[in-house]
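Odorant receptor, pasting as requested.
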Amino acid sequence: MNHDTILDRYLKDKFYGQLIGIWPDQDRFMKYSARLIILVIINISYVAQISQVVVFYSFDTLTDQMPFLLIGFAVLLKQYNYILNQNKLRRLLHGIAISWLTERPKEELEILEKYTKKALILSMIYKAASAILLFMFMALPAIPPVLDIVMPLNESRKRIFIFPSYYFVDEEEYYYPILAHMTMSAFVVAFVFIACDLTLVHVVQHACALLVISGCEARWYDGSTKVQALYILLLRKCLSPTKLTGGGLIALNLDSFVQILKASFSYYTVLKNS
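Structure tokens follow.
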């Protein structure tokens, strides 16, 4: 098996990375076309959402719009983080392929298989959750017509959109073009989150497999003097725990995530009641 065959076999979610233009070795035309399309769709959506706040400004409008603005910002942040670091991603993917192509004992291959399957299971759960959320958002415009049939009123209910925005046109006349753009925006958000997060899942799980392989049961002391020296340096480095941080300012873990949610909810409650 060669490099590409390995990635096709063990990184089955690379399709999403190619779909949003972050996969390092995909065709240049397709890569830049995907990036341009996503940039145009998200920027139009972002302008429409900001216009909603400016034209109909109130504190309630701002707080209602804020989650959607943050999602749009997160989409661009995620995608361009991968774009700007595509050389690092290429080296990581190359390292994964090399790990599989290296001749290994059966026990080590079983460890790699175990963590690859774990990554696939986590990916399936993530994709299922994303699909459910996407369906819920996509179903919002269908609520008024359904209610008109199930619980009719004297007049038809007002049609609604997937998220609040202002396009500077008559919303009733251009309802379906606006809804089409919102639908594309929703799909872009889902695909960007899936592609970026699942790539991270596969890389992290492979790293965990390598750590297990090189753990205390590894017979490093039977290797050459150079290997032993390198292993000692690695053990010395591990005295300082490895952690993922955001700009070196805050640790990215479950505890910090919970604290941010608590603080955000507290600020929102105070501002909402002020």
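Note for the archive: The radius of gyration is 24 Å.
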